Amino acid sequence: MELYTYYRSTSSYRVRIALALKGLDYQALPINLIAPQGGEHRQSTYLGINPQGRVPALRTDEGELLIQSPAIIEYLEERYPQLPLLSKDLTTRAHERGVAGLIGCDIHPLHNVSVLNLLRQWGHDEVQVVQWISHWITQGLAAVEHLIGNQGYCFGDEPGLADVYLIPQLYAAERFNISLESYPRIRRVAGLAAQHPAFLKAHPAQQPDTP
């Protein structure tokens, strides 16, 4: 498999975690989102691969090109069901998907670089941009804190789908200097992930395109 990725991309990060948790090998193909010429994702070469011009994109062993991290992760879960990311219990699965959706749909998109750049183009200064970021991340994490369990990872002793989404979001929170002091459950999960080989392997600091 080939993964078009960017070391600091939250959505790429979550796919890297899913691949690592399942023990799947892949070749990382870095796409520089902040290259001086305007970003490799906007160049015709990459647009020919992914017309949306975003990462991640995954080329499967069968040669199919998949886009959007939720679809990629769902494919991986169904194609490689060993070491599952979802619980066997249907209700727990729904809770796991709920937290993943909260992060992937309601937090992350609102601090995506394209959104932040548009705010700047509309005349908002950096103070306002930072306030925007802080508002959406803190509001979202406060909800996650109430939704996850009291021990282990988000929903059990082993990491799963919710953790795959949560840990990259915490990396973004750290980048934007947002404190996790008010979220003891989230900090517990973060502490466990910080010692897990799959999360360590997928961390932005360990990627081939990390500056």
Automatic annotation (TrEMBL):
GO cellular component, one term: cytoplasm
Protein biosynthesis as UniProt keyword: no
One GO biological process term: glutathione metabolic process
The keyword Isomerase is assigned to this record: yes
GST C-terminal domain span: 89-211
Family label: Belongs to the GST superfamily. Zeta family.
Name of this protein: Maleylpyruvate isomerase
